[in-house]
Design goal:
mainly alpha; two-stranded parallel sheet; globular
């Protein structure tokens, strides 16, 4: 008998041990690729809109997921997390690597939740987010390996749950989830990647070349993840009749303003990688203007 797609994903999302989650997901993903998973959903072609509404029916709140507890570290407010401005010691390097590892650990849950939460989507949608989850697992393992090489492990430093606040805030809407999480916060990771790597280059760790290699792998894959977020963001917009480029640019700017607390783009945009992921030059200019506007408002306060 075939396993049910959504109930099996829910079981995975309730695993709080990374090793068990990785093993369970590996079997599930292989079965999915071989057509051994029952997906009780009315599929639509990716280029067909308004055929029937996608929904989050029967999807339970993300706060119930045991997988949110993959990191056993103390969880603090994002405002209380202090990252080193300069990296000259192994411990400071470890803190930076740990913060990136926590993002990748969280991203595993974000990808699995996208596949679990939204029903009546094209088969391509589920294939996309399971592929993302698989790559995020690989990223996390690479980063955990770097931590181990300098004498640390995941869970040694405090973390914040900012990404999970975004997860909860976007539970009821495909448009908001794709826009805030996968086209917003994941694209912000593209902006941050070269700056984090530059900071880590300040130290003379013997594994510096390996760190550089890992960050290049992450950047390459994350462009694809943001591209998937871009694809399904536009899919959701087109279901609402928002089809022109200008209208979509305005819609994303409005989303950034509505969810400004999540700061959906970095102060300095990684234009080259964002263009690869589906952003247009016109939209990048709009985001830069939006950033300038809010920087001005913040300065006045």
């Amino acid at each position: 008998m075939k396993k049910d797609f959504f109930s099996t994903l829910y079981e995975l999302l309730n695993i709080s041990d990374f090793g068990a989650l990785k093993e369970g997901f590996s079997h599930f993903y292989e079965d999915f690729k071989q057509g051994k998973i029952l997906l009780d959903s009315q599929f639509r072609e990716s280029n067909t809109y308004k055929s029937q509404p996608f929904n989050t029916e029967n999807s339970l709140p993300s706060k119930d997921f045991g997988a949110l507890k993959l990191c056993k570290a103390k969880v603090l407010s994002p405002l209380k997390i202090r990252r080193p401005k300069h990296v000259t010691t192994p411990q400071q390097s470890a803190k930076i690597l740990h913060s990136v590892a926590h993002i990748e650990s969280s991203a595993i849950i974000l990808a699995l939740d996208a596949a679990y939460r939204f029903k009546n989507m094209p088969l391509e949608f589920y294939a996309d987010w399971l592929e993302v989850a698989s790559e995020e697992i690989a990223h996390f393992e690479l980063l955990e390996g770097l931590l181990n090489e300098i004498g640390y492990k995941y869970g040694d430093f405090n973390v914040h749950n900012g990404l999970f606040y975004a997860l909860s805030a976007s539970e009821g809407s495909l448009k908001i989830r794709m826009g805030v999480v996968h086209r917003g916060l994941e694209a912000k990771g593209l902006d941050a990647n070269p700056f984090v790597l530059e900071k880590l280059a300040q130290t003379s760790l013997p594994i510096h070349s390996k760190i550089k290699e890992v960050f290049h792998i992450i950047l390459r894959d994350e462009v694809g993840h943001v591209g998937k977020g871009d694809k399904w963001w536009k899919y959701a917009l087109q279901n609402e009749g928002i089809c022109t480029q200008n209208a979509q640019i305005n819609a994303f700017s409005a989303l950034c303003e509505e969810f400004w607390r999540f700061k959906l783009c970095g102060k300095v945009l990684n234009s080259q990688e964002r263009l690869k992921a589906g952003f247009s030059k016109e939209e990048l200019r709009a985001l830069e203007n939006l950033n300038a506007k809010y920087m001005t408002q913040h300065t006045k306060k």
